[in-house]
Amino acid sequence: MRLSQLFCSTYREDPAEAQTISHKLLLKSGMIRPLGTGIYTYLPLALRSIHKIMAIIREEMNRIDGQEILMPVLNPAELWMETGRYQSIGNELVRFVDRAKRPMVLAMTHEEVVTDLARREIKSHRQLPFMTYQIQTKIRDEPRSRGGLLRVREFHMKDAYSFHADYPSLDAYYPRVYQAYQEIFRRCGLDPVPVEADTGMMGGTGSHEFMALVESGEDTVVRCNQCGYAANSENAMIRPPIVHKDADELPMEEVATPGKESIDDVAAFLGVSPSQTMKAVFYNAEGRLVFVAIRGDIEVNEIKLANTLKTADLALADAALLEKHGIVAGYASPVNLPNDVTIVADRSLEWGNNYVAGANKPGYHVKHVNIPRDVPVNNFVDIGTAREGDACPRCETGILTLARGIELGHIFKLGTKYTDAMNVDYLDDSGERKRVIMGCYGIGIGRLLSTIIEVHHDDKGMIWPRSVAPFDVHLVSLAAGAQEMEAETEKVYGELQAAGLSVLFDDRDESPGVKFNDADLYGLPLRVTLSKRSLKNGGVELKLRSSKDVEIAPLNKAVGFVKAILESTNLV
């Protein structure tokens, strides 16, 4: 491809709207252009990389016996109503009515469609197991699009679905997908951390996310420094340190705390640590008031709380709802709550006693509150947020560390969540009808492209791994006006292509500075420069984008040198 004919233009200045490194470089290099918030056009350079990523994914999916299909983005809403997700998913799901007055949705994922397909096709156990996959457009009316392609409203995804006769079959297949994902990301130049994850709206019995650890990530990865435990903070277990536990449970005692409403203010006023207080947090769960009791130094993890309550509609309770139940904000007490208030107590309270809590009276708190003596809760649940330095919940001797991460892929053991809802059965060898078991496995293509850039770049531009680079070679001609040199450059261009290499040929009438700056910005694996100086030095100049070193190759052996460098260098 001649750069003079390439349909894109570069920016000299950093785009003001860019929020991340990948967003900046994708816009600056002319790889993507915004059409609207969270909606992008992929230009030729980006699409070439996208196609390479898709090819890697297809190879690895086929290697584990995947069969590629293509399902519609336009879905009848009845399918989503069958599973209940039409009602439970918020405004992210695009709903509309077609001209025949039928309710429709634009698919943000394809569990309903593939499950409907399976119930039409599966008859016998002899058809199981199998896995289908697709690479398809998804629509999600994302309320907080950010980071260019990292969080968008329209995106491409590889989603795969496996179908099994029983759980042992799913358990045996799941590690194959796990390994295939690791190989996909390795071939794309990434080394993500697999972490235990929340199943979210997908449901199921277990899942793993593959997280690239980069500062621009919006997820938090929790890891143990000894045993290898790793989880998304959304569902990471916690084991907060025991900071106090008296030998005896003391009698409750009401104390005046005038004007002290926050945990820190109350703790300081009474001369105790925040960890010796019982924090009260109120939520509205589908109209039901929920009182969360948690140690004062720990934050509520709302994802874990929603899962505990089995609700998709969870929000902090407003003043009107608290007042309706006779609760005094800032001084709320877990003692003597109305019967229609649900109480949830975090496990952090299990490792202490004699807590300070609200008295449900303005200007007063209560000392020496204990569960279950004073608060009607028999079970503690894990709804706390993991913190840097907490003890590992698995090995109990390690320490938790936190890091930012980008989710590259997510795999689920769905079980029978969808086959139960849509009545998908098969006949076993005795003729008995049994439920089909499912797995689900996704990778966001645009997010993967962006993450590669987040990991592989410097202050000048992108540094593409060869496996996903738009072109193998960036050929730079500094021979403007010299016919003989232009002819030599054209010859090298043709020979490189004839050797099976993809080449971006900068044949523009621009200064060397502009050409070299653009070469660094595009970040192709190897730059080949032909100039008066290079010819005087013996041939063509070869420079890896990832290196500062320059090598001169004889003009008549340039192609051989280029191939050897690309094949011997660790460019993935």
Summarize the structure.
By secondary structure, the protein is of the alpha+beta class.
Helix and strand arrangement:
Layout: H1 21-28, E1 32-36, E2 39-42, H2 44-63, E3 66-68, E4 74-76, H3 77-83, H4 85-88, E5 94-97, E6 103-106, H5 111-121, E7 130-139, E8 154-164, H6 167-187, E9 193-196, E10 206-212, E11 219-224, E12 230-232, E13 253-256, H7 263-270, E14 278-285, E15 288-295, H8 302-309, E16 314-316, H9 319-324, E17 342-346, E18 355-361, E19 364-369, E20 380-381, E21 400-415, H10 417-421, E22 425-427, E23 433-435, E24 437-444, H11 445-455, E25 457-458, E26 461-462, E27 473-477, H12 483-498, E28 503-506, H13 512-522, E29 526-530, H14 532-536, E30 539-544, E31 551-554, H15 558-568
Parallel strand pairs: 3-7, 15-17, 17-20, 27-28, 27-29
Antiparallel strand pairs: 1-2, 4-6, 5-6, 7-8, 8-24, 9-10, 10-21, 11-12, 11-21, 13-19, 14-15, 14-16, 18-19, 21-24, 22-23, 25-26, 29-30, 30-31
Helix pairs in contact: 1-11, 2-6, 2-11
Account of the protein in words:
With 572 residues, the chain is α+β, with helices and mostly antiparallel strands. It has 3 domains: 18-217 and 402-453, Bira Bifunctional Protein, Domain 2 (BirA Bifunctional Protein, domain 2, 2-Layer Sandwich), CATH 3.30.930.10; 253-381, YbaK protein (Alpha-Beta Complex), CATH 3.90.960; 471-568, 3-Layer(aba) Sandwich (Rossmann fold). The strands form 8 sheets. Strands 3, 7, 8, 9, 10, 11, 12, 21 and 24 form a 9-stranded mixed beta sheet that branches. β27, α12 and β28 (503-506) form a beta-alpha-beta unit. α1 (21-28) crosses α11 (445-455) and α2 (44-63) packs across α11. The model has no long low-confidence stretch (mean pLDDT 92).
